[in-house]
TrEMBL record:
Protein's name in the database: Mandelate racemase/muconate lactonizing protein-like protein
Database matches in InterPro entries: DgoD-like, Enolase-like_C_sf, Enolase-like_N, Enolase_C-like, Galactonate_deHydtase, Mandel_Rmase/mucon_lact_enz_CS, Mandelate_racemase_C, Mandelate_racemase_N_dom
Keyword set includes Protein biosynthesis: no
SMART domains named among the record's database cross-references: MR_MLE
Organism: Hyaloscypha hepaticicola
Length: 381
C-alpha cells in the first residue's frame, strides 16, 4: 500500500491555502484548506496533522478522516475541519489520479453531465449591479448572488432596506435570477422586514438571513416567507447540519467543502439532506481546487441544485483569480448558466505547481474586513 511521504501547504493570493500530498512512490494529490481570515490557525493545525499522517496508507481516506475526527478528543469547528478538508480533498485527488479516473467515479458515478453555476456581483457595499449583471450575462451566466445590505444596526431605519429591494428588481430586469446574501449581518428585527420586502420580487434564495447560532429564530423566519432559506457555510459537519434539517428551517444547504471536512463529509451531508428534500448549493467563494472538488461531488449528487463560483469576485480584485494556478482554466467556461463536467483524472484540473510555489513566497494572510457603526460599535460583517 502506498504510504503518505510528504504533506506541504501553500498560502497563495488572494486568500487561499493549498495542500499537496505525495506518497512514497511519487503519486500526488492537491487539496484546499482555505478558511478566510484564519489562515495562520489552519496552518498550525496542518503542522500537527503532518506529524501524525506521514507513513499512513494514502488509500485509507475514510480511516484517516475518522482518525482525525475521533482521536483528537476536541473536534469540529472551522479550523480543525478546514485543515481536515485540505487533507481529505488531496487524498481523493491522489487516489483517483492513481487509478486514472475522475473522483466522481469513486463516488458512485455521475448523475449529470454539466453543472449549473452562479457568480457574484456587487461587493460588501453593493452598487452598479445592473451593469455587473449585464456583464455576467454576457459571460454566459443566468444567475448571480449579491449582498443584501451594507452594515445594519440591530434595529435600523426601515429605509435602510429599500436599496436591496431596488437592486433585486434591477437585476431581475436584466433577465437574471438573483440570490440575496444577508451574510449574517442582519439581525432579527431587520431580517423579518427584509425577507417580507423581497418576497414579491422572487429572489432565488435568501442566504444566512440570520446567523446559524439562532436556529429557533431561523425556523420562525422560514415560516414567514415562501422564499427558499439557504445557509450552511458556518456549519462544519453533519452533526452541525442535523438540527436544521430536523426543524425544517432550511430549504437549501450551502455546505463549504473546505470547511466541513472535505469531499468525504460533503457527500455524507448531501445524502442526509436528500432524505429531508433539501437541495445542495455548496458555498465556494474560494479557489480552483475547492471548486473542482465541489464539482466532483455535484456530479454524483442527486439533490445538487447550483454551484457558487468565484470568477471575478470582489475579493479577487487586483490579485489572482479562479483561472490562476492551473494549466487548464478553460474548464470554467460557462455556457447558458452551466459548466461542463470535467473528464480528466482526479479533480479534473492540472495545478501549475511552479506558479503556486512562486506566488506563495511572502504571501500575506488575508484579513477579514469589518464594519464599525456610527456610534463606534462593532457590527456584523
Amino acid at each position: 500500500m502506498p504510504k503518505i511521504a510528504q504533506i506541504e501547504y501553500f498560502r497563495v493570493p488572494p486568500r487561499w491555502l493549498f495542500v499537496k500530498i505525495t506518497d512514497d512512490v511519487g503519486n500526488i494529490g492537491w487539496g484546499e484548506a482555505s478558511l478566510e481570515g484564519h489562515t495562520q490557525a489552519v496552518e498550525g493545525c496542518l503542522d500537527a496533522y503532518i506529524e501524525r499522517y506521514i507513513g499512513m496508507d494514502a488509500d485509507d481516506i475514510e480511516h484517516i478522516w475518522q482518525f482525525t475526527w475521533r482521536i483528537g478528543f476536541y473536534r469540529g469547528g472551522p479550523v480543525l475541519m478546514s485543515a481536515l478538508s485540505g487533507i481529505d480533498i488531496a487524498l481523493w485527488d491522489l487516489k483517483a489520479r492513481k487509478l486514472g479516473v475522475p473522483i466522481y467515479q469513486l463516488l458512485g458515478g455521475k448523475v449529470r453531465d454539466k453543472i449549473k453555476v452562479y457568480v457574484w456581483i456587487g461587493g460588501d457595499r453593493p452598487s452598479d449591479v445592473t451593469i455587473q449583471a449585464q456583464a455576467r450575462k454576457a459571460q454566459g451566466f443566468t444567475a448571480v448572488k449579491m449582498n443584501g445590505t451594507e452594515d445594519l444596526g440591530w434595529l435600523d431605519s426601515p429605509s435602510a432596506l429599500d436599496d436591496c429591494v431596488e437592486r433585486l428588481k434591477a437585476v431581475k430586469a436584466v433577465g437574471m435570477d438573483a440570490g440575496i446574501d444577508f451574510h449574517g449581518r442582519v439581525h432579527k428585527p431587520m431580517a423579518k422586514q427584509l425577507a417580507k420586502a423581497l418576497e414579491p420580487h422572487r429572489p432565488l434564495f435568501i442566504e444566512e438571513p440570520l446567523l446559524s447560532e439562532h436556529p429557533d429564530a431561523i425556523k420562525a423566519l422560514s415560516q414567514l416567507t415562501s422564499t427558499p432559506i439557504a445557509l450552511g457555510e458556518r456549519l462544519h459537519s453533519r452533526w452541525d447540519v442535523r438540527p436544521f434539517l430536523e426543524s425544517g428551517a432550511v430549504d437549501i444547504l450551502q455546505t463549504d467543502i473546505t470547511h466541513c471536512g472535505g469531499i468525504s463529509e460533503l457527500k455524507r451531508i448531501a445524502a442526509m439532506a436528500e432524505a429531508y428534500d433539501v437541495a445542495m448549493a455548496p458555498h465556494c467563494p474560494l479557489g480552483p481546487i475547492a471548486l473542482a472538488a465541489n464539482v466532483q461531488v455535484a456530479a454524483a449528487t442527486p439533490n445538487f441544485a447550483i454551484q457558487e463560483m468565484s470568477l471575478g469576485i470582489h475579493y479577487n480584485a487586483g490579485s489572482q483569480d479562479l483561472t490562476s494556478y492551473t494549466h487548464n482554466p478553460e474548464v470554467w467556461k460557462v455556457t447558458d448558466g452551466y459548466i461542463d463536467l470535467m473528464k480528466g483524472p482526479g479533480l479534473g484540473i492540472e495545478i501549475d505547481e511552479e506558479q503556486v510555489r512562486r506566488l506563495s513566497k511572502g504571501a500575506k494572510a488575508w484579513v477579514s474586513p469589518g464594519f464599525i457603526g456610527p456610534g463606534g460599535e462593532v457590527r456584523e460583517w
